Amino acid sequence: MFPSGASHHDSNTLPARSREVLLVEDSWHVAIAIKAVLTEMGLSILGPAATLARAEALLSQSLPDVAIVDLNIKGRMSYALVERLLDARVPVLIVSGYADLGPLTGRVSAMLGKPIDATGLRDTLEQLLAPKRSG
Question: Model pTM?
């Protein structure tokens, strides 16, 4: 999934405190690859959740700083989960093989198509986790 020999990325642009990421992905190898990047970036991980029920259970315990969600989880679309996250003002990064976001079009914070690469994932997460500037 990620190119071999990918270099470690300097994550000094992220705030010092550990940020929490909800990871919802039903493909084991994709979840492990994403989890490796999150760990390398020093982020805390909720999950990975391979079912929508598990994702909801994790969400009921803690509100993450950002969520990474696959659009299709075991044959079920994750629209309701994403809507719940958006309603709670959690930035959502969709990672999916689907090009059409359906009812979420224009609402999610970012989207990466599968297969994803480590650099694109890191760069997108850094943008989503960057402190918001007013003005």
Answer: 0.85
Ordered per-residue pLDDT tens for the chain, 135 residues: 444 344 444 444 444 457 999 999 999 999 999 999 999 999 999 999 999 999 999 999 999 999 999 999 999 999 999 999 999 999 999 999 888 888 888 899 999 999 889 999 999 999 999 887 654
Q: Is the dihedral angle over the CA atoms 30, 33, 47, 85 positive or is it negative? A: negative
The single residue listed with the structure tokens 């391979």 is 50
Q: In what order do the strands lie in the sheet containing 66-69?
A: 44-49, 20-24, 66-69, 92-96, 110-113
